[in-house]
Amino acid sequence: MTTLYLRELEIAQLAVQRAAQLTKRVFHETAKGTVSKDDASPVTIGDFGAQALIIAALRHNFPADAVVAEEEAAPLRADPALRDRIWELVRSTKLEDVGAEGLLGGGVRDVDAMLEVIDRGGSKGGRVGRVWAIDPIDGTKGFLRGGQYAVCLGLLVDGDVKVGVLGCPNLPVDDAAPLTADIGANQTDDEGRGVLFSAVVGQGATSRPLGPGALKEGKKIAMKAVTDMASASFCESVEAGHSNQSDSAQIAQKLGITKPSVRMDSQAKYGSIARGAGDIYLRLPTSKTYQEKIWDHAAGDLIVREAGGQVTDTTGARLDFGVGRTLANNKGVVAAPAAVHGQVIKAVREVLKL
Ligand SMILES: Nc1ncnc2c1ncn2[C@@H]1O[C@H](COP(=O)(O)O)[C@@H](OP(=O)(O)O)[C@H]1O
Ligand SMILES: [Mg+2]
C-alpha cells in the first residue's frame, strides 16, 4: 500500500472542508435573500474568503509550493468595507474538529495577513515543480441560483495532477442518488447533502460526507459501465455560454443516447460521473478563443480517471495542465468511462468536424 501524497491528501481534504464551511454560510445568507442589492456580490465574498482559508492551510503545511488561484486582493485593498466583511467570515470559520483545525494552522492571523495570503495565488503554473490549483467557488452562477457549486483543489507535480479534492456542498451524500438537473432551487437545508470527492494518482477515488464534524473514512467510487448507450446519461453546463448545447444534442443523437442532458453547474459534474450517478460529461467550445482554466478541471480530471474514466479534450488528447494557468493546448472536455471514451470521441469529432 503506497502512502505517497498521504499528507497532501489529508491537508487538501481538510482545507476544502473548512473553505466549504465558509461558502455554505454565505450561500445560506444569499439563499435566504439577506444580501441586498447594494451589498458586494456574495460570490466575491465567498470566493475571497474561501481562497484565503485554503491558501493559509497550504502555506502552513507546504510553504515552498506554488499556488494558482483565481482571485487577487487588489479589490479588497480598495474597499475596506468589503475587506472587513470577508475578514469577519475568515476569522470565524473553524473546523469543529479541533485537531484538524490545528493541522491547518488555525486560520489567518489578521486582516493584513489575509490580504497577503490571497495574493499568494498568482503563480504562472507550468511544467516544473509543485503547484496547487484552487477554485474557491466553481460554478458561481449555480452558487447564486441556489444550485450546485464546488470548492476545488488540485496538486500538480511537474504538470501532472497527483491529488484532487472537490467539495460539493449541494450534491446528495448518497452516491447512489439519481442524477438530477440542479439549476438552482434556493434550497436552504443541508440535510442529506454535501459530499467530498478525493483522488490520489494510482490510488483510486473516494467519496465521503463533507461534514460538519470530523471527516469519515472515504468509500471507493467507480464509474458505471455503459452497456447500452440508449440509456446512458450525459451532463453538461447549465450555462449555454460555457458549453455548446446544440452540439452536445447532436453528439448525443449520434451516440444513440435517448435521455435529455442533465444540466448542472461546476465540477460537481465530474464528481457525479465518477460515482456512477451519470455517465458522460461533455464540455464543448462556444468560441475559438476561450481557454479553459486549470482550476476548473484539475481535481475533476484526476477523480474521474481514478474512478475508471478517461478525460480528454474534444480531439481525444489528455488535458495538459503544464502550460500555465490555462489549458492552452486543449479545447473542450470529454469525460467518459474508459471503455466507451473512444466511441464518444468519434462522435464528437464527427459533429465538430475535427
Ligand atoms: N466561455 C466559456 N467557456 C467555457 N467555460 C467558461 C467560459 N466562461 C467562463 N467559463 C468557466 O466556466 C466555469 C463554470 O463551469 P460550469 O459551466 O461547468 O459551471 C466558470 O468557473 P467559475 O464559476 O469559477 O467562474 C468559468 O471559469
Ligand atoms: Mg471555476
Instruction: Assign an overall shape.
Output: globular
- Record field, number of beta strands: 12
> What is the spatial order of strands in the main beta sheet?
1-2-3-4-5-6-7
Arithmetic mean pLDDT: 93
Please write the string of helix (H) and strand (E) elements. Answer: HHEHHHHEHEEEEEEHEHEHEEH
Q: How many structural domains does the protein architecture include? A: 2
3D structure, described in words:
The chain is of the alpha+beta class and 354 residues long. It has 2 domains: 6-221, 2-Layer Sandwich (Fructose-1,6-Bisphosphatase, Chain A, domain 1), CATH 3.30.540.10; 229-352, D-Maltodextrin-Binding Protein, domain 2, CATH 3.40.190. Helix content is 35%, strand content 19%. It has 11 helices and 12 strands. The protein has helices at residues 6-31, 42-61, 74-77, 80-92, 98-103, 111-118, 140-145, 245-255, 268-274, 298-306, 338-352; strands spanning 66-69, 130-138, 150-157, 160-172, 193-200, 205-209, 219-221, 234-236, 262-263, 280-283, 309-312, 333-337. The strands form 2 sheets. Strands 1-2-3-4-5-6-7 form a 7-stranded mixed sheet, with helices on both faces. A hairpin with a 4-residue loop joins strand 5 and strand 6. Helix 2 crosses helix 6 (111-118). The longest helix is centred in the first third of the chain and has 26 residues, at 6-31. The chain is globular. The model has no long low-confidence stretch (mean pLDDT 93). The chain binds adenosine-3'-5'-diphosphate (A3P) and magnesium ion. Residues 135, 138-140, 142, 237, 239, 241-242, 265-266, 286-287, 290, 293, 296 line the site of adenosine-3'-5'-diphosphate.
